Amino acid sequence: MKFSLLSLAFIFTFLSLSSSLKAQHYKSDNLEVSKLAENVYQHISFLKTQDFGKVSCNGMIVVDGAEALVFDTPADTAASEELISWIESTLKSKVKAVVATHFHADCLAGLDVFHAKNIPSYAQALTLKLAAQKQFPIPMHAFDKSLRFTAGRTSVSVEYYGAGHTQDNIIAYVPSAKIMFGGCLIKEQGAGKGNLEDADTAAWPGTVQRVRNRYPNVKLIIPGHGAVGGIKLLEYTRNLFQ
User: Fold this and answer.
1) Is 94 annotated in the active site?
2) Catalytic one among 43, 57, 72, 165?
3) Backbone angles phi, psi at 232, to 5 degrees
4) Is 225 a catalytic residue?
5) pLDDT digits (tens, 9 = 90+) for 148-161
6) Alpha-carbon torsion 65, 67, 71, 74, what sign?
7) Fewer CB under 10 Å: which end of the chain, C or N?
8) Is 115 a catalytic residue?
9) What is the pTM (predicted TM-score) of this model?
């Protein structure tokens, strides 16, 4: 009897640990997800480009209880389907909304997948206009300067501070974790200037400085591409374009 109880306890512990590990990291050919803090995850997908080859693209997930928010879709429809499925099956949460941080494909290429599942999408007003001009998927709802979202009891602010990588780029901030999703406005440490096709390089340093002034206590920043870092990513990006 003791052996059976111990065996059951071991099996239960193993299954609980396995479930916990699955919720902290996921990897396939199309998609990676890593837990950064309580309620906050980074998702990584891959975009094939002519100029830069296969590029890893970052996004953010905020989840609390049965609700989740996604910031930037994965870079294609297959990875978007996979991400939504992973959130539902592993995190046991329903995606409440998706936010595109600018109009490029690495932010909204998977929007049609979200829309097909009746998940509302949001973006800065310029994003809708620019996406339409490029015949890209168009977010459903627009805002001007800022908008606040909640997943369960966890809040996220999305804010527009000006042009940089594009005219419409925004950032998202999770106050409870002091984590920022900088999107392509923010560069990883050591990165080059990257794709400047739609950039305003003159405005870029000032825009990043306004973000720096607003969030002097940010602990972790997810750039649009590359490795997560601290507040020094803001300083690095500003200096890169000065």
Assistant:
1) no
2) 165
3) -65, -20
4) yes
5) 999 999 999 999 99
6) positive
7) N
8) no
9) 0.90
